[in-house]
Design goal:
single chain; 433 residues; alpha/beta; six-stranded parallel beta barrel; two-stranded antiparallel sheet; 23% helix; 39% strand
């Protein structure tokens, strides 16, 4: 079934609804279809994943206690109805609109979850393709075996650089199309495993107290993800010639860390005393776990930003686009800003002086955010969460359109709370009544 046919069937099935309610429902389900197609599904698959028009209509009829036949025909010009009839019809219309808002919120969450599952599958496939390059065939069935980086990956030859951590003030990795892994190690030695080739040469050396890895050419375009455009849709294709750069640092290393790459993921874990951290990539995930640093800037695009038990003494900035932000147990001594677009933002446990969770065309879930000021902002998505304290603790400004709102539009309190969306519900509760 095509998109046009689905919308026409839904239009016919919802004719029992008042015009405003019917148009709101049609607009919502049309947008849901478009979102799924923008996430990479073809038109037929996107339609197949939708709820059947008849099922949507049946649920609305049941919730409203009305069947299509029971709806009164439009009044003729000669009969406008009694006052009691007008009141009864207005109450029915209001009930229908509220039920549509409820269904819109439920369907929005279902669409976001479906898109998230598709994104997760794609990311895992890309990561498995990347990791399989480094593993010999006989090691694939032995997950407990530690596999050393291979001596060669395609045309690339492995290089190893080591130095004492006391000799360094920072590490700076400037790459192209290569994944980066940063992990904690024991002892006091820093080990950098990287790859180089004649067409894509890299060198590592200490420059003014900074371990620097960079290409000897102005640009580098080997390996990584490539885009394939077919019938107005794009897909990621992993090039197996892309090697992974691995950096091992003592867990308590007091150094700056800069890692800039493209079309390759960045993962870091177990580092407890980093100074300034600057991570940038594109079209690949950034995953940070069990880390502490002085300041953090992490930016990617078209892939997820995943943060678990990460603390910054100063500012904490995380940004992506067209992909989900997922954070738990994150802390900042100053401002924390987590921002994406066209995707969902989910935070469970955060602390900062000022906290902002921002997206567009996606929902937000913010639970247990302890901050002096909180901003939750999206469009075309719902905002949900549970915040500390009681509603009286917050100076609230909230607004939505085409959705319900559990918060007052305005309220005076000590801590600023700004919650804004459009075409979505606001359902924010508090730990204390």
């Amino acid at each position: 079934m095509s998109r046009k046919e689905y919308i026409q069937e839904l239009t016919d099935a919802l004719r029992f609804l008042p015009e405003d309610a019917r148009q709101a429902a049609l607009a919502f389900y049309a947008e849901m279809l478009d979102d799924r197609m923008e996430d990479g599904m073809d038109e037929e698959s996107a339609v197949a994943a939708m709820e059947a028009p008849g099922a949507i209509a049946a649920r609305l009829q049941t919730e409203n206690g009305e069947a299509p036949e029971a709806q009164a025909a439009p009044a003729s010009p000669l009969h406008t109805g009694s006052q009691d009839e007008k009141i009864e019809f207005a109450a029915l219309a209001d009930s229908v609109l509220k039920n549509v808002e409820k269904i819109v919120g439920q369907a929005t969450e279902a669409a976001e979850n479906a898109a998230e599952q598709a994104s997760t599958i794609a990311e895992k496939a890309a990561e498995q393709a990347s990791e399989s390059v480094k593993k010999p065939a006989d090691s694939q069935e032995k997950p407990d075996v530690v596999v050393l980086p291979p001596a060669r990956v395609g045309e690339y030859e492995k290089q190893v650089f080591t130095c004492p951590v006391d000799a360094l003030e920072g590490v700076r990795l400037i790459l192209a199309n290569m994944p980066v892994r940063v992990k904690a190690c024991g002892g006091d030695q820093v080990t950098l495993v990287y790859y180089t080739s004649q067409r894509d040469p890299y060198t590592a050396q200490i420059e003014n107290g900074v371990l620097a890895l960079r290409s000897n050419k102005e640009t580098s375009h080997r390996g990584g993800f490539h885009f394939s455009f077919i019938a107005d849709h794009f897909s990621f294709i992993w090039d197996a010639s892309s090697p992974t750069v691995e950096l091992s640092l003592p867990a308590n290393a007091l150094v700056d860390l800069t890692a800039h790459t493209s079309n390759g993921s960045i993962k870091a874990e177990g580092l407890r005393a980093l100074c300034q951290v600057d991570l940038q990539t594109s079209n690949s995930r950034i995953s940070l776990k069990e880390m502490r640093c002085m300041s953090l800037d992490a930016q990617t695009s078209n892939s997820r930003l995943a943060l678990e038990n990460v603390e910054s003494k100063q500012h904490f900035r995380g940004k992506t686009s067209n992909a989900r932000i997922e954070a738990s147990g994150v802390r900042a001594g100053g401002e924390m800003v987590l921002q994406t677009s066209n995707a969902r933002g989910v935070v469970n446990g955060a602390a900062a002086q000022v906290f902002s969770l921002i997206t567009s065309n996606g929902g937000l879930q913010a639970d247990h955010v302890d901050a002096g000021a909180v901003t939750l902002r999206t469009s075309n998505g719902s905002i949900r969460g549970v915040l500390p304290g009681s509603v009286r603790d917050w100076a609230i400004q909230s607004k939505t359109s085409n959705g319900s709102n559990s918060l007052p539009d305005f309220q005076a309190g000590e801590k600023p709370l700004s919650v804004r969306t459009s075409n979505g519900n606001i359902a924010v509760d508090f730990e204390r009544t």
